[in-house]
Design brief:
- The chain is an alpha/beta fold.
- The chain has a domain of 221 residues.
- Helices cover 35% and strands 16% of the residues.
- Strands 1, 2, 3, 17 and 18 form a five-stranded antiparallel β-sheet that branches. Strands 11-4-13 form a three-stranded parallel β-sheet. It has a three-stranded antiparallel β-sheet with strand order 6-9-10.
- The N and C termini lie far apart (65 Å).
- The longest helix has 28 residues.
- Helix 1 packs across helix 12.
- This is Pc12g10150 protein.
- It comes from Penicillium rubens (strain ATCC 28089 / DSM 1075 / NRRL 1951 / Wisconsin 54-1255) (Penicillium chrysogenum).
Length: 643
């Protein structure tokens, strides 16, 4: 008899002790096999638990996006500094605003060699030059799993709820931006019930909607673009809200209402009016937990544009949903109240992707064991053999939600919008996107650099210091320069394996060996408005908010373990993660270290790059430095170039 009451989600395996040799990078076969066996046991159990949720429904708290909000600041408009630039992989120009984050040294470390406070510049995307294309061709959560408090079958309207949330987000941004911003309806191909004669047409019943609400629904259901939310006119062109969307599929809709009125010249609904219309529609159809999940799906649209993925929403269905109890309806009013916080998160696509990809990072997994850790998940559980590929994406979302309960609603919304393939692609190679703001904003750690470690800096044998601690100390900002370039964080979350001899470490490291642990914590966000003085924003909550404390293993008893076809392991992810983390050490430092671990074949590429760099010009050297930069570091570099 198998049960997951062993707290799978809260107790992942610990691998750091498997490869204890301080100076060997490539693990032995027996070490890889041990890691792989433990990883399979963990991921298979987690997959079994995810299947139970898929079959029986979510814990209600998992559908509440409120748990995502930790220190996310409240969105502010009309910034002093704006920039027009390409952003992400898309060639489309976007409008960005400049802000910054401040981090302070905490604890009782009495050290006068490092700064007590540091500030990092940041960009938020507040406009796009073109609308984001989407379709109702998605199959992920096309049958809505609901919560344990939703049992009777009802409609699945996740897709159109998501588009409606895009309108609400756009309208709220226009309202916050004020003068110069505008909201208007544009041509719609959606017809009233009596004017639509196409055979393949979906009828949407909007109940007792008046002509203003009906006109709004025309805009939501329009093919191509149904509204235009202009944020700002610039010499480079017109920029629209980041949630501007354009439907590309050929689906035809007709609106059914109990009192038909012709579409008159109606002013666009405000964000509050649109929210009221949407909640009335959701109440009329009993959509329950679909409403908050749809908000989280809408939140990911700028992330899709940034990373070049395709938005595919679930098609409307008269069945395939779950009808709610009264308790879920109590959540709805908080969604509009907290909307400005969700807007800030949405305008930070790198934070969104870092948060989601970080769900599969583990502190106790060193760089040289990333492959056997991720292999069972990516190549066995998500192999496509368990059903359809959409089933795999639902499994991914549920497993991510179980591992990071605070962002469970974000996970499910992201998968419903079609973001899962891009997440898998980013995680697979061991180099997921990283953003330092993700941890303080959402409460979900992303990297070994997010933790300060514990105990003395030196090992039991005082001649050694763990390499993760070497990396942490190198990254500390010194008051006096030392010609080393460790200001940027590593671009991989996985900790370097082993330990270094203290005598081989730079002064920047050895000068702190007797110090108490140094840790910088996010303190506040800095807004710089166009009119008035800048001000500090301490985020949604300055103290830990109520989180999901019930582990799923305490709520669901899984009696049948899932089994998956075992596949041959490829160590490419381990090699890539190791190469990235040791490259950061080398290209920012003083040359080839004396330790024999740097002679490993996995790191040969670093020395090949070094030989090439000797003949390269300054631009080439700058590009190499970029390999070690996280998103925030690249932003600061770009801002310094345009200052």
């Amino acid at each position: 008899m198998f049960s997951t009451r062993c707290s799978v989600a809260s107790n992942p395996p610990r691998f750091s002790s498997i490869t204890e040799n301080r100076n060997i990078l490539q693990p032995q076969k027996c070490q890889v096999d041990e890691t792989l066996d433990k990883s399979r046991e963990y991921w298979y159990r987690l997959a079994s638990l995810a299947c139970a949720y898929r079959d029986d429904g979510l814990t209600p708290a998992y559908a509440n996006p409120h748990h995502t909000l930790h220190k996310i600041p409240k969105f502010q408009g009309r910034p002093r500094k704006i920039y027009v630039r390409p952003y992400g992989v898309s060639p489309v120009l976007v409008l960005c605003m400049q802000a910054s984050s401040t981090w302070t040294l905490v604890g009782n470390s009495n050290c006068d060699m490092i700064e007590e406070e540091i500030t990092h510049s940041a960009l938020l995307k507040i406009g796009t030059g073109v609308a984001i294309p989407y379709s109702f061709c998605g199959g992920v959560f096309s049958s809505w799993i609901g919560t344990t408090e939703e049992s009777r079958t009802g409609p699945n309207y996740l897709g159109i709820l998501t588009v409606a949330w895009c309108y609400i987000l756009s309208a709220r941004l226009v309202e916050i931006q004020g003068e110069g911003a505008s909201m208007q309806y544009i041509g719609s191909e959606t017809d009233g019930e009596s004017f639509c004669n196409f055979p393949e047409t979906y009828t949407l019943d909007v109940g007792e909607a008046d002509e203003n609400v009906t006109r709004w629904w025309f805009a939501i259901l329009a093919q191509h673009e149904g509204w235009k939310a202009t944020v700002k006119q610039t010499p480079e062109g017109e920029f629209f809200a980041p949630w501007a969307v354009s439907r590309t599929c050929q689906t035809r809709f007709k609106i059914k209402q109990k009192r038909y009125s012709p579409a008159l010249m109606c002013s666009p609904l405000t964000s509050e009016q649109a929210f009221d219309a949407l909640t009335e529609f959701a109440r009329f159809h009993g959509l329950g937990s679909q409403l908050p999940i749809a908000l989280m799906a809408a939140i990911t649209f700028p992330t899709h544009q940034y990373y070049g993925s395709t938005v595919q929403l679930p098609f409307l269905s008269a069945t395939g949903g779950k009808l709610p109890t009264a308790s879920i309806l109590l959540l709805w009013p908080s969604l509009i109240k907290e909307l400005p916080y969700y807007m800030t998160l949405s305008c930070s696509p790198e934070v969104v992707m870092s948060t989601l990809c970080g769900s599969f990072w583990e502190l106790e997994v060193p760089c040289n064991l990333v492959g056997p850790w991720l292999h069972p998940l990516l190549n066995e559980v998500l192999s496509g053999t368990s059903g359809t590929v959409n089933h795999d994406y639902e499994m991914l979302a549920l497993m991510g939600a179980i591992r990071r309960p605070n962002i469970s609603a974000l996970w499910i919304g992201a998968a419903a919008s079609g973001l899962a393939p891009k997440i898998i692609q980013k995680v697979r190679r061991g180099r997921p996107p990283l953003d330092a703001l993700a941890f303080p904003w959402t409460g979900c750690p992303q990297s070994f650099m997010d933790t300060a470690g514990s105990g003395p800096y030196t090992c039991v044998n005082a001649e050694y210091i763990s390499r993760p601690d070497v990396w942490r100390l190198l990254h500390l900002p010194p008051k006096e320069g030392d010609d080393l370039g460790y200001r940027t964080r590593p671009c991989t979350p996985w900790a370097p394996c082993g330990a270094s001899k203290t005598k081989d470490c730079a002064l920047r490291v050895t000068s702190h060996l007797r110090c108490n642990r140094h840790e910088y914590q996010y303190h506040h966000w800095n807004w710089d408005p166009e009119d008035g003085a800048g001000f500090q924003d301490y985020g949604f909550s300055t103290t830990p908010i109520s989180t999901i404390t019930e582990y799923p293993t305490d709520l669901v008893d899984v009696r049948e373990p899932k089994t998956f076809q075992k596949k041959e392991l490829d160590q490419m992810a381990s090699r890539e993660a190791s190469l990235d983390i040791f490259r950061w050490f080398f290209i920012n430092g003083e040359g080839i270290p004396p330790e024999t671990i740097y002679e490993d074949d996995w790191l040969k590429e670093i020395w090949d790059e070094d030989e090439s760099d000797e003949e390269a010009d300054a631009a080439g050297d700058q590009e190499s430095q970029g390999l070690a930069a996280t998103s925030r570091d690249r932003v600061e570099t770009w801002l310094s170039s345009v200052a």
